Amino acid sequence: MSELFDCRQAFAQALEELASADPRIVVVTNDSIGSSNITNFRKRFPERFVNVGIAEQNLIGVSAGLANGGKTPFVCGAACFLTGRSLEQVKVDLGYGRANVKLCGMSSGMAYGALGPTHHSIEDLAWTRVIPNLAIVVPADPEETRQAVHAIARTDGPVFLRVSRMPVPAVHPAGYQFQIGRAAVLREGTDVTLIANGTMVSRALAAAGMLGEEGIQARVLNLSTLKPLDREAVISAAGETGAIVTVEEHSIHGGLGSAVAEAVVSAAPAPMRILGVPGVFAPTGPTPWLFEHFGLTAQGIRDAARELVYGRVRDEAQTRTGD
Questions:
Q1: φ and ψ at residue 19, rounded to 5 degrees
Q2: For the chain: N or C, fewer Cβ within 10 A?
Q3: Are 248 and 268 in contact, with CB atoms under 8 Å apart?
Q4: Are residues 158 and 188 in the same domain?
Q5: Based on the domain organization, do 264 and 134 belong to the same domain?
Q6: pLDDT at position 314, please?
Q7: Does 218 map to a domain?
Q8: Which residues of 183-201 are buried (b: 16+ CB within 10 A; e: fewer)?
C-alpha cells in the first residue's frame, strides 16, 4: 500500500515558508487552530496571527480589511463554516471587492464523517464557484498542496483553497509543476476520461488501473483548479476519448461535474457520469464508509466507466446493424 499523507501538514509548512520570507503574510482564524494545523504558525509568528473566535462573518470582514491595508491574509477554518456561515461576506467583501484574501477551507468534503450533515462540506464548491473573481483550487496530494499555497500567495485577488484532512497518497510524478488554471494528465488513455480533484484523484488512478486489466484505457485528469477551468483539457478529453466520468467529494450539483458538463455540452458533447453525493444530506458515519456508501471508490469509478464504454460499444453496434 502507498504511504498516506495529511495535506494539512504540507499546507502548514508552505504557509510558514511564505511567512518567513514575506512579512505581509498573516493568518486569520475562527478558532480552528488545531484542525487547521496552524499551532506552530501561531508560535512562530504571534504578531501575525488573529483569532476572531467563532464569528465567521467577522472573520471575512477582518480579513478584507487586512488585505486593504496591504497584508495577505490566509483565512483558516473548517470549510463547512468558512463558506456557509459567511457566504454574503465572501461574495461582497472578497468577490465584489476583489480583496486579496486566501480562503483556506480545511477538513472539506465528508472528512468530519462522525459529526454528520452539519459538518459535511459538500456544497462549498457550488457556493463559491458562482462568485465572480474568486478562484478555486482543490489539490490532490501534499506536493500539489504545497505548490498551490505558494501559487495563491503570488496571485492577486481572492482564492478558495480546499484542503482535506483525509490521508492521501502522492499522485504526481517527480518534477510536477502546479499552475493555477492548468489540469494535469496523470495517465494517458483513449477509451474514457476520469476527471477528479482532491481526495478522489488517487481513487481515479486506482480505477484506471483496474480498467486497464480489462483492456479499457482510461485517461486520468486531475482538475485541481476548478476555477478558472482548464476548458482546453476538458474539451480535448471529451473529443479524444469520447466519454467522461467525473468524481468529487461534493454534491453532484454545482461542483466539478457541473463545471465539466458545462464545458463539454457547449463544445464537445460526450456521454458523462457525474459521481458524488446525489443531492441528499450525507448521513453520519466514518468517512471511509461514506465513500463506500456513495460509490466514491476505485470500484465505483470503474463500474461507471465500464457502463459508459460498453454502452457506447453497444450503441455503435446497433447503429451499424440498423437495429
A1: -65, -30
A2: N
A3: no
A4: no
A5: no
A6: 61
A7: yes
A8: bbebbebebbbbbbbbbbb
The residues carrying an active-site annotation are 56
Residue 103's CATH number:
3.40.50.970
- Tell me which residue of 74, 229, 203 sits closest to 150, measured CA to CA: 74
Nearest 5°: the CA angle 77, 83, 70 is 70
Peptide bond into 228 cis (omega under 30): yes
> pLDDT category, 52, cuts 50, 70, 90?
very high
Q: Is the pLDDT of residue 122 over 70?
A: yes
* CATH number of the domain enclosing 269: 3.40.50.920
Checking if the pLDDT of 196 tops 80, the result is yes
Same structural domain, 204 and 127: no
Tens-digit pLDDT profile for residues 142-163: 999 999 999 999 999 999 999 9
Percentage of the chain modeled with pLDDT above 70: 96
Among the residues of 53-171, which ranges form H helices? 56-68, 79-84, 87-89, 124-129, 142-154
Burial bucket for residue 115 (CB in 10 Å: 0-12, 13-18, 19+): middle
| Total domains, the chain | 2
* pLDDT tens digit sequence for 276-322: 999 999 999 999 999 999 999 999 999 999 999 987 756 555 555 66
What is the pTM (predicted TM-score) of this model? 0.95
| Domain membership of residue 303 as a residue range | 184-320
Residue 134 to residue 139: CA distance in whole angstroms: 16
Please state, as a whole number, how many other Cβ atoms lie within 10 Å of the Cβ of residue 302: 24
